[in-house]
TrEMBL record:
Coiled coil: none annotated. SUPFAM superfamilies: Acid proteases (SSF50630). This is Conserved domain protein. InterPro entries: Aspartic_peptidase_AS, Peptidase_aspartic_dom_sf, Retropepsin-like_bacterial. It comes from Methylocaldum marinum. It comes from the Bacteria. One of its GO terms (molecular function) is aspartic-type endopeptidase activity.
Length: 233
């Protein structure tokens, strides 16, 4: 079954241990419990709960049909109405097919920043806006790393982010983790990419393209030609 964004976010936080981070997540209501509560409150029948994972329910707003659409964005389902405006039955049929990482076996030119390679990247957050950003290729970072000042620009709201901390050489730094809608580097792209937001003053302008994107591909960094080569797995 396809992993939900909540599950991928929890895995991202666990993976951040490679950066010395420790998640401090709070317990929250599961999607299954939220749907059962809504069914009881609004008097409809819900079927197919066995297709759900154990992900947390996201915050929703609007009328019942809008809230259900927001809650079940990663699932296929059918809503049956008994009369106009009244939902009688909700049937969850399956999880949606995951979006696979796509590549044209690309060789992307990099620019040098000291001993590091930089690439032009296009990030898409929850607001759906394509944001061009130059990132440092960093295979030592378990996830894509950005400054906190970019959270709002990418469309993240507080409820979309999970708090955590990063253990640095000198102290502990608070971070926030989320999921980008997509990341593109040249003709290569991947959907649902974990990202960690660090305080701006700790990054000092650095933005990292880590393994939450790079691991979607077979990757080679050609030092001689200054190329990042991404091949489809």
């Amino acid at each position: 079954m396809r992993k939900s964004k909540a599950q991928r976010l929890r895995e991202c936080l666990t993976g951040l241990l490679l950066l010395g981070t420790i998640p401090v997540a709070a317990e929250s209501e599961t999607l299954r419990a939220r749907l059962e509560s809504l069914a009881t409150e609004h008097g409809f029948v819900v079927e197919g709960l066995e297709h759900l994972g154990y992900e947390s329910a996201r915050d929703t707003a609007g009328d019942l049909s809008v809230r259900l659409r927001q809650l079940l964005e990663e699932y296929n389902y059918v809503i049956m109405t008994e009369k106009p405006g009244a939902i009688g039955r909700l049937v969850i049929t399956s999880a949606k097919t995951p979006t696979r990482a796509r590549s044209l076996n690309a060789a992307i030119k990099t620019t040098r920043l000291g001993s590091h390679h930089q690439v032009d990247t296009v990030l898409v957050g929850p607001n759906g806006v394509a944001l061009p950003v130059t990132l440092i290729v960093d295979t030592g970072a378990s996830t894509l790393v950005l400054p906190e000042s970019m959270m709002q620009e990418l469309g993240f709201t507080p409820e979309m982010l999970q708090p955590g901390v990063s253990q640095t050489a000198n102290d502990i730094v608070p971070i926030k983790a989320g999921i980008l809608e997509s990341v593109g580097v040249g003709p290569a792209s991947a959907a649902d990419v974990p990202v960690a937001f660090f305080p701006d003053d700790r990054l000092r302008g650095a933005k990292l393209l880590g393994m939450s994107f790079l691991s979607r591909f077979r990757m080679t960094l050609d030092e001689t030609e200054s190329e990042l080569i991404l091949l489809a797995r």
